Amino acid sequence: MLNGMAVIEVRNLRKEYGRQVAVDDVSFTVESGEIFGILGPNGAGKTTTVECVEGLRRPDAGRVRVLGLDPVTEGRRLRRRIGVQLQESHIPERLKVWEALDLYGSFYERPADWRRLLADWGLSGKRDTPFAKLSGGQKQRLFIALALVGSPELVVLDELTTGLDPQARRDTWDLIERIRAAGVTVVLVTHFMEEAERLCDRLMVIDAGRVAAIDSPAGLISRSVPEQRVRFRPSIPLDERLLTALPEVTRVSVNGPRVEVSGTGNLLHAVTSVLARHQIIATDLRVDQPSLDDAFVALTGTRPHLSEGPDPGPEGPSPSTGHPSR
Predict the structure, then answer these.
(1) Does this model's pTM top 0.70?
(2) Orientation of helix 292-300 relative to helix 217-224, angle to 10°
């Protein structure tokens, strides 16, 4: 999938708002063709980081290059090559779907065919519908189409599925996968663990403005929460020493008829093998694998929140649209 080229290079990024340090020494790269996710608690600096990448905020220190360009000094050139869906986006309520796409397309020298985008994103039937009359899922489809109307090489989606019902959220996930399938690199800021685990090739976890970890979803889980749990009811009384002697086992607890075994590696195979050798049947067997939620808690000490407001800053709220200036 990846050709090894860095689309985004961030080195030692720092951003302050007065005495508040929002981003502190953040470094990462995003490779061509991947979906790169950014996770973190409320106020961790996720939105500030991507706004520095987009050129909407000026870093106080560090180096940022996007498609080889400096977002601050070469912002006009950069914005013609990227698409942005901001954390909070608004367009005039009376603006019709086709009018919005036609308007945004006029900002680019070689825009995509907005009529094709209408069809690709299931909006042909809403062509003449005012923005205010669209459902939440339809608005998100429109925002994706607006981010793609400039035929970008990179698209940044900030909290795209916040406020959507579960079905609309899953439909949007399919759309994001279609963006990547078309050869566009995606940066996805999210607080939904299921979303991050399903979509992202790699994840960066930010906590208190600093990078806590960067890895694949599976890698974050295995390095942060390596322990698993196996629960069962033995068919006959069990000598705990059979299990505690196993190198994969770290702890065995017995609660009435139930046995819980904690450990690492191929724990399930190790436990069931020793039970089989001693002719013990494990009934009501359950395996609890660590999740991305568990890894997030281990890395940040907090549980994922259901929503997030924009990072505070002296400039006030983030701009509501991400189109390039003429």
Answers:
(1) yes
(2) 60
